[in-house]
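To whoever is on call:

I kicked off a structure prediction for a single chain this morning and the downstream step that reads the tokens threw a length-mismatch warning. I double-checked the sequence; it's 694 residues and nothing unusual in it as far as I can see. Pasting both halves so you can look.
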Amino acid sequence: MSAPLITPELVRLDVPSPGDKNAVIALMADLIASTGRSERDGLEAGLLAREESFATGMPGGFAIPHCRVEAVHEAALGVVRLREPVDFGAADGPADLILAITAPAGTDDQHLKLLAQLSRALIRPEFLADLRGAETPEQVSALIADVVEPAPVPDAAGTSTDGTPDAAPTARSAPASAAGSAPAAGAEPAVDADPDKTPVLLAITSCPTGIAHTYMAAEALENAARDKGVELHVETQGSGGITPFTEEQIAAAGALIIAADVNISGRERFAGLPLVEHPVKRAISHGPQLIDEALAAAADPHAARVPAASAASEGETRGATQSWPRRIQGAVMTGVSYMIPFVAAGGLLMALGFLIAGFDVAFVAQDVATTSSLSSLPGHVSYDGPTGAAQTERAGLALYLGAVLFTLGNLGMGFLVAALSGYIAFGLAGRPGIAPGFIGGAVSVAVGAGFLGGLITGLLAGPIALWFTTLKPPRWLAGLMPVVIIPLVTTFVVGGLMLLFLGRPLASLMTALQDGLTGMSGSSAVLLGVIIGLMMCVDLGGPVNKAAYLFATAGLSQGTEASFQIMAAVMAAGMVPPLAMALSTLVRRRLYSPVERENGTTAWLLGAAFISEGAIPFAAADPLRVIPSMMTGGALTGALVMALGVGSQAPHGGIFVAFAISPVWGFVLAILAGTLVAATLVTVLKELRARRTA
């Protein structure tokens, strides 16, 4: 049986202020870890990471740092009451009451229900007053336990039932709470709203972790609606699950409030409904104002509404209240997150193909995979290699299986730019942006614009498609807009811009880079290695990276020692970024989020297989620290490869084609040196940032 969420051992009262909020969080991590419920460093890192996303200070002089991380073994509630308040970022001043909510990464729904209930209780002034007036840790523990783990109470029939509330008041109404929930302690009885005079309102609340702010916002809005005599139904999209609005509630609604810091799901349900949208913390601090805004929107025929076209999927535009820089940043992160599976699947399949069939499978893979079969295995296949006519080293089942794997991986990698572009556009415009984004990315590849071209086409396709969704066409045309008109016109505009204006300058830039590199061989070999290393790491699979790679692979046809060395420098330097980030996440786990640590585990394999894109999630999240560090390590690796005379006859494969690299020890030494330097630099830079914010 699990321990109670809070015990007197998890409470500290009248503690002298240890410094700023980071020092308080460190103190809280010590407190919770001392009970054996978590690993101290991992918990502190999780709480700090949550604090960086936005401050947890709340109106009323309290703060609720919280997280769900692997370092937590068992859910806990820690309470620290300070003698001198500390600034936690609340608009009304510092906080003297700090309540930490910590849960394991795999927390079950019941724990989340209890944590959500505490979050809602913290909105009530009388509950905070009781916590501040408690004289012993036992009293604080009992007060909180009464909220999150209430004793069984008799039901109407006299039988004993568990008084634990549902997690989420996920579809609650006020007044009179149609879901049957009791009013908050100390609240006035709900006033029935007259639907003929006051419209029914809907609200959706959601925060990044889905634990605290989600439910506090719901409680604040419900209390404000109850005070104003307004009927409100709330759907909390938190970690405790979602109970969606009923069709009847949506049909009766006059306006929708969205208080969220993440994309909410199911916007298509509210097409045409007047919309009020704000960050989740505004609902907590200004609940009555949001209710007033929603009432005004319901009465205003010109109020902003949920777009019909863009309501076709989740991940839509977040509304006019979110700034364009934030929307673009979120869209780029969406594109990168959807692109990574293509990188992982495609790159690792290619690497397995090299391992099974040898490095020369790259020259014959498609022909072997499409013309051979398990009943008709290939022999040694002839091909035109770097040194002229040659035959594959392997034959039979090994060559056939390797060719199949390599072909699958190569096809998957071919979707990278299109996926990036398509899902950036999706992040900005929803479903109508997918087709023009994907096609624009394909055009970027066709004209040689590569990674940068895909970024540009996605950022073009998204706003254009989004603009079309704001139009109000005749009813007979409205159904065709999201599936025909918007994709057709947006694709024509974006693809035309790339083909007519943008593609050729980008391709010319890549050609100029290749010509410049060619002129630096010979006596400037080490300097060439430095430049190659910088190019391979500056954009991690982008056009500069691809320019260096194309320069190296084109030179293989010459079959010279210099061309083999350039290929080795390109491959070794390209392996450094994912390997360095994997190492950094291993030695300083607290500096990275749980998702980044998972990406770090995958990056070991991606780096070993020469998939530079494995470092993109880290660069996208922290470019100013990651990219310079990776460039430094890549430059060192490139220089060492050229200085040691390492050559590679294989165009791809990383460590899996070691048999095609000579000397192997020089190749490995260069990669190790660059990886250590890059990992050290990025770790130090992230540590310095953490200390400055401490």
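Update from on-call: the warning came from a stale cache, not from the record. Cleared it. Sanity check on the structure: The first strand starts at residue 11 and ends at 15.
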